[in-house]
Each structure stands twice: as C-alpha cells, then as structure tokens.
Amino acid sequence: MKPSLITLLTDFGTQDYFVGAMKGAILSINPAAQIIDITHDISPQDIHAGAFNFVSIYKDFPPGTIHLGVVDPGVGSNRYALLIECAQQYFIGPDNGLFSWICEREGKFVARQLTNEQFFRQPVSATFHGRDVFAPVAAALSNGVNPEEFGPLIEDIVLLESLEPKTTAKGIEARIIHIDRFGNCITNLRREHFGDEEVSAGMSLSVNEERVTSFRKFFSQTTAHGGDELFMIVGSAGFLEIAARNASAASILKARRGQPIILSTENNG
C-alpha cells in the first residue's frame, strides 16, 4: 500500500452519497491514500467557482499531490476526461476549464485524455464519472501507474477567459472573478498590477458607478478615510478584493461575478 495525497473538490454537497462513493472508489484501489476535502460546496455546475478555488489552493500542497475536481455539467457527453501534469502536481477531471487558470498561471503543462478503460470502474455510469472514471484513475496514479498508461497527449484544453486584466487609457480593466460567502468581491488584480503600498494609497476602483478609494491591510483596520463602508484589501489568495467590514460588499454594490471594474491611480486619473 502506497501512501498518497489526493484532494477532492466537487459541487456535490454532503447531503447525498456522491462524495462517499468517490472516496470508496479511491480506497478500494489504494487503501493507504490520504484524502483531503478542499470543498464540496461549489454551487451546482459552477465551473468558475471551482477554477477559482483550485487556483487559490494548489500552491499550498506539496509536489506529487493529485487533485481531483468534479464540477461537470457535461458528464456523459463527448467532453474529454483529463489528466494534467502542472506545477509538479496532477489534476484530474473534466475538460471544461476547471484547471485552466492554473495552467495559464504556470505557463507549462502536459495534458492527457483519459481513454484507457482498464482503469475505469465498470460499468461506467453516464452520470457519475467522478466515481467511475476520475476517482479510479486518481487512485491508480497514486499507486504509481505511469501517466502515459491512461491515454494520449492532447495539445489543447478548454480555457476559461484569461485571468489577466487589460491596460487601457482609462486605467486597468479588470473584473470580479469570485464572490465569497462573506460577500467579498474578489478581482483578477494582483499586487503586480498596482505596486506597493504607496501606490495603492492613491488608487481607486470603479464598480457599478461606485468609486472605492480606501485601502486596508486587514478588515478591522482604521484608515484616514475613517469608516468608509467599502474598501480594497489584498486577500489571502493574492487577489485584490472589495470588502465591507461586517457586511457584504457584493450586496452593497449590487455586484455579480464577471462585473467589469476599472483600476485607476493618481497618475492615470
């Protein structure tokens, strides 16, 4: 028995048997596997939320970790099943963009289509590839099976829209890529897009005709702007967020994921 680290991220929730069935499929093949739940509370079919959580978490795990993701509205269709090698880790799941932000950030990856049915649980359910395809492949990989055994290389994978903002005459055009359970609006802006603290002190974000100018290091910080309801903060995943202390910034702004925002500084107006 080979001890291995396998993470799970799904939109299955915990009310039904789905997550337990996947763990059973893994442990039937590698009883020594160490299974870590990232989350099973992704909203149903919300590929973008899954992608955000993956790009925020993968660097916290050691080389060789196997990440298994099932947010799969195309299950049973002709969409590919994938094994991706990237950042010295493995990512297994549907070809629908779930891992594309990691691949974009890292720049180098190797992708394979899972076609070798000898590693699948038989018969394969048309509605539960998490248990019958992805979990058995993850378990076999954790047992030391060479990635080449699972299927052929493919050059292209499905990509979500880029994480990179665009620079325009108005400033940097970005967007809200995620809204967390606290109502914080997480953008695709990172520190490299607005510089150090001195620069950030003179910047603002425009969202839904609202202008956010206050910047904080932590949520309860008092600033020169006093009790500004909305403020900017760099979150733990490294992205710039719009937040409100003890309140939902998303509700205040009537914001949604995908909402365009403009970052401007004193230098560009």
Outline the fold blueprint.
Layout (H helix, E strand, L loop, with lengths): L4 E6 L7 H12 L4 E6 L7 H11 L8 E5 L10 E6 L2 E6 L5 H7 L3 E4 L15 H14 L10 E2 L11 E3 L2 E9 L5 E6 L6 H4 L2 E5 L2 E3 L17 E5 L4 E6 L4 H5 L6 E6 L4
Parallel strand pairs: 1-2, 1-3, 3-5
Antiparallel strand pairs: 4-5, 4-6, 6-7, 8-9, 9-10, 9-15, 10-14, 11-12, 11-15, 13-14
Notes on the structure:
This protein is of the alpha+beta class. It has six helices and 15 strands. It is elongated. The mean pLDDT is 91.
CATH topology type of the largest domain = Rossmann fold
CATH class division of the largest domain: Alpha Beta
**Number of helices, counting only DSSP H or I runs of 4 residues or more:** 6
Q: State the major sheet.
A: 8 strands, antiparallel
Low-confidence stretches: none
Number of strands: 15
- Count the domains: 2
Radius of gyration: 21 Å
Q: What do we call the CATH homologous superfamily of the largest domain? A: S-adenosyl-l-methionine hydroxide adenosyltransferase, N-terminal
The SSE order reads EHEHEEEHEHEEEEHEEEEHE
For this structure, the quaternary state is single chain
Q: Nutshell version of this structure?
A:
By secondary structure, this protein is an alpha+beta fold. It is 20% helix and 29% strand. It has 6 helices and 15 strands.
Index terms:
single chain, 269 residues, alpha+beta, Rossmann fold, 2 domains, 8-stranded antiparallel β-sheet, 6 helices, elongated
